[in-house]
Amino acid sequence: MTSELDDSRLRQERLRKLEQLKEQGVNPYPYSFTRTHKAVELQEKYKDLPADTETEDVVRVCGKVLNERNTWMFVDLYDDSGKIQLFCHKQNIPEEELKRLRLLDKGDFLGAEGTIRRTKQGELSVKVTSYEILGKTLQPLPDSWDGFTDVEARYRHRYVDMIMNPNVRDTLRKRSIAIRTIREFLDSRGCIEVETPVLQVEAGGADARPFITHHNTLDIDLYLRIATELHLKRMIVGGFERVYEIGRIFRNEGISTRHNPEFTMLELYWAYGDYNQLMDMTEELLRETAMKVAGTLKLTYQGVDIDFEKPFKRLRMNDAIKEATGLDVDSIKTYEEMKAAAVKLGGVDLTHCDTRGHVINAIFEHKAESTLIQPTFLIDYPVEMSPLTKPHRQNPGEVERFELFAYGRELANGYSELTDPLDQRSRLEDQAAKKAAGNEEAMPLDLDFIMAMEYGMPPTMGIGIGIDRLVMLLTDSASIRDVIAFPTMKPRV
Question: Is pLDDT at 143 greater than 90 in this prediction?
Answer without folding.
Answer: no
